Amino acid sequence: MNSPIPVGIAGVGHSVPDRIISNEWFAQFIDTSDEWIVQRTGISERRWLAEGEKISDHFVVAGQDALERAGVSPEEVDLVIIGTVTPDYMVPSVACIVQDRLGCTGAGAFDLNAGCAGFLYTLSVGRQFIASGAYKNVLVLGGEALSRISDIHDRGTIVLFADGCGGVLLRRHEDCGQGLIEDLTLGSDGSGYHFITRPKGGSFEPITQEILAEGSHLLHMHGREVYRFAVDQMSGLMEWAMKDQELDQLGWVIPHQMNRRILETATSRLNIPSEKVYINIDRFGNTSAGTVPICLSELFQGGQLEKDKFLVMAAFGAGLAWAGARIRW
User: Fold this and answer.
1) Domain 181-328 is in which class?
2) Phi and psi dihedrals of 69, rounded to 5?
3) What does the angle CA 288 – CA 291 – CA 295 come to, to the nearest 5 degrees?
4) How many Å apart are CA 186 and CA 4, to the nearest integer?
């Protein structure tokens, strides 16, 4: 049996809406304040899609940036995979729309639903197509339009969620010389599926006037249960990724941006220096599958990714699903 081909990240990109939603804006709908939101979540503002704007618009921009930075033309892309729970339409996949708009002629395309772990799940899947030798260029994107499925009157969720996306172009490591994917892990616990869900509006209970009136087609979350599980899971994923690694070789911990308190608690358990943990939740909120690639793209654009240092990525979300990655830049 042939050894898997080492896979690298050839290009990175991200895109977020221009529309900024401040904490104060929510006071017209719910009993809250800037102080309350910052203290409990670490979020000061977030980006939401404007009326008439689609998340596919941003997937296209992020994909274009990743391709340009990789020096790869759209026609050379073999496969487009998008991790999202908020595609433009339930049918077809948003990946097919993005494939067409990017000009990735003939490339395969599909969506993957793994909640906030969506990008790392797509990264794992995309990696296999390169590692097996089946494909040479795989575009992997993750992101959400969570403002479109959140309940404006639910204080526990509406202040958290936001819109935006990011992604990478995967190639053989020998062809790009950076972002070597050393290891990946995936996991899930379906017994907790009901902790983060859109209860109705699927094929089991299709949309009705009653469902629309009660708002059960919108996102619901059991915050206390999710918080406890997330702290343990994020700590475990980071510990897994850093096992047998020297701390002085750590470039960045890039965690899913679900809640600043969760991130601080999880990283402090492992004595990870706070200056090594990349956090942008204060500016962008929780974009679910978009958080990890947006962070990576910001680090790349800022010239903050050091050669030969390793990156730890960890994400947890609906499913319950989780994923971790260690990447040597």
Assistant:
1) alpha beta
2) -70, -25
3) 180
4) 18
Q: Does CATH number 3.40.50.150 belong to domain 7-177?
A: no
Residues of the chain with CATH 3.40.47.10: 7-177, 181-328
- Encode pLDDT of 18-31 as tens digits: 999 999 999 888 88
Q: Which of 254, 241, 10 is nearest to 119 (CA)?
A: 254
Q: Which two tokens stand for residue 80?
A: 């487009």
Q: Which two tokens stand for residue 306?
A: 């050091």
Q: Tens digits of per-residue pLDDT, 16-75?
A: 999 999 999 998 888 889 998 998 889 999 999 999 999 999 999 999 999 999 999 999
Q: Provide the whole-model pTM.
A: 0.94
Residues 197 and 318: beta-carbon distance below 8 Å? yes
For residue 310 the two structure tokens come to: 């390793």
Task: Give catalytic residue positions.
Answer: 116, 256, 286
328 forms bridges with which residues in the sheet? 180, 310
Tokens encoding 81: 């995979």
3-state secondary structure the chain: CCCCCCEEEEEEEEECCCCEEEHHHHHHCCCCCHHHHHHHHCCCEEECCCCCCCHHHHHHHHHHHHHHHHCCCHHHCCEEEEECCCCCCCCCCHHHHHHHHHCCCCCEEEEECCHHHHHHHHHHHHHHHHHCCCCCCEEEEEEEEHHHCCCCCCHHHHCCECEEEEEEEEEEHHHHCCCEEEEEEEEECHHHHHHEECCCCCCCCCCCHHHHHHCCCCCEECHHHHHHHHHHHHHHHHHHHHCCCCHHHEEEEEECCCCHHHHHHHHHHCCCCHHHECCCHHHHCECHHHHHHHHHHHHHHCCCCCCCCEEEEEEEECCCEEEEEEEEC
